[in-house]
Amino acid sequence: MKTFKKPNIVLSECINLAATRYDGGLIKNEFAELLGKFVNYVPVCPEVSVGLPIPRDPIIIVKDKEDVLFQPKSGRMLTKEMEEFSKNFLDALKDIDGFLLKGKSPSCGVKDTNLYSDYEGKNIIGKTSGMFARIVIEKFPDYPIEDEKRLIDRAVRELFLTKIFAFADIRELGNNLTKSNLIQFHSDYKLLLMTYNQKNLRLLGRLISNLKEENTDDIYKNYAEIFRGSFKKKPSKGSHVNTLLHAFGYFKDKISTKEKAHFLDVLEDFSKGRVDIHTPSEIIINFAIRFDEEYLLNQRYFVAYPKELSEV
User: Fold this and answer.
1) Is the pLDDT of residue 1 over 60?
2) Which residues, in sequence order, are CB contacts of 56 under 8 Å at separation 6+?
3) What is the rounded distance in angstroms from the CA atom of residue 82 to the CA atom of residue 79?
4) Smallest Cα–Cα separation from 32: which of 153, 167, 151, 155?
5) E strand residue ranges, the chain
6) What are the tens digits of pLDDT across the range 4-55?
7) Angle at the Cα of 174 from the Cα atoms of 299 and 221, rounded to 5 degrees
8) pTM over cut 0.85
9) SS3 labels along 103-163
10) Taking phi first (over 0 means left), then psi (-120 to 50 degrees means alpha), and beta for anything else, what does residue 292 get?
């Protein structure tokens, strides 16, 4: 059974943790609650942290010469305070693997915060990121950063989960770094990297080929940076098909003609959307168990995060 390092995730405090919303409310989110069993949460409420009370009058983002954070009722400008808090908070973070923030928030919204043209907050002209989220995105460009609303989408959720557990793994590798551990890590992530970013897989392979005991620290730093940049978007079905065919190659001379035909039929069903990725993956795993193919059984591609998180 695979074990997983616990990712450290910055969480908007109003999601399940504390009633810090502008209206004094608490957001109950089933997925975030389940995820909390497998990660360590680092709570933050930027609005309370810049001195706003609970409850408080709403704040908005206004498009002026530069976007500003503004509280219409009090006339208070909060841009500078929010930027200073955000930079100080994020600079102090250590060992973080991702962010789960409150959607639509003027501080934490990742992509869907209202942008206004007026200081009264009457005319919405588009969507933007919250002021805290903007600085998160700037300082952690390759890291998983999502809001709780987008995680309703299964594909978005799977990418987020894949990234946070992979990032926890690469972080923990740095805490227990040896040449052999780095080589094993690369081996375990080969199929996942093949699926998400073949160019980076080749770059990482070249780093591993130049690995020596005396340069392990330097190689790791380069490796970790490229690794974290390998998961920018969800892979296509074609990428999954390519990976599964590669894994299938380990067994094509060991199984019957009917078994081959069955797997290829299931793979075609996946490519046409008739079954999900787990159906052909399970066939490969069963072959790997049957033929004791440890290399494939160790692949994070087949179990990228705890199975319980697939049940929401």
Assistant:
1) no
2) 22, 47
3) 5
4) 151
5) 8-12, 40-44, 60-62, 68-71, 76-77, 98-101, 113-116, 124-128, 145-147
6) 999 999 999 999 999 999 999 999 999 999 999 999 999 999 999 999 999 9
7) 100
8) yes
9) CCCCCCCCCCEEEECCCCCCCEEEEECCHHHHHHHHHCCCCCEEECCHHHCHHHHHHHHHH
10) left
